[in-house]
Design a protein that fits this description.
136 residues; mainly alpha; 4 helices
Length: 136
């Protein structure tokens, strides 16, 4: 069901992008060599992976040192580590006066994570929810 909803969402985005007029931005006219773009993408990818790993590992070590249970660490620290790339992208977009990119990044990543990632995870192994995890 989740993957079906994801495919419908992607179809919706595809149709909307074909029907919308092309907009010129101040970034549209800048040119950069392909090799430089690839270099920036690779450098950014390495920085995101290493930065997220360092933050998650450090936060996990601190939480274990304080005595926080692994369950709470999994619910908070790991969620923070996986959300940091979106947060950084949003901050950079706002800094560059592109708030639409920041909002689109947050909404798009949330939809992708809920529909595609959970859907693929459910195909690999069933997703069970223990009500004992939530203690009111």
């Amino acid at each position: 069901v989740l993957l079906g909803l994801f495919m419908l969402y992607m179809l919706y985005l595809f149709i909307m992008s074909r029907n919308s007029p092309k907009q010129e931005t101040k970034y549209s006219k800048q040119t950069m060599s392909v090799s430089r773009m690839i270099w920036y993408v690779m450098l950014g990818l390495v920085a995101v992976i290493l930065g997220s790993d360092v933050i998650v590992q450090s936060a996990t070590d601190i939480a274990r040192h304080i005595g926080v249970s692994d369950r709470i660490i999994g619910l908070t620290v790991i969620a923070l580590g996986t959300s940091l790339p979106e947060l950084v992208t949003g901050i950079v977009a706002v800094y560059k006066k592109q708030p639409d990119i920041a909002v689109g990044n947050i909404i798009g990543s949330s939809i992708f994570n809920m529909l595609f990632v959970l859907g693929m995870g459910a195909i690999v192994a069933p997703i069970y929810f223990e009500s004992s995890v939530i203690k009111l």
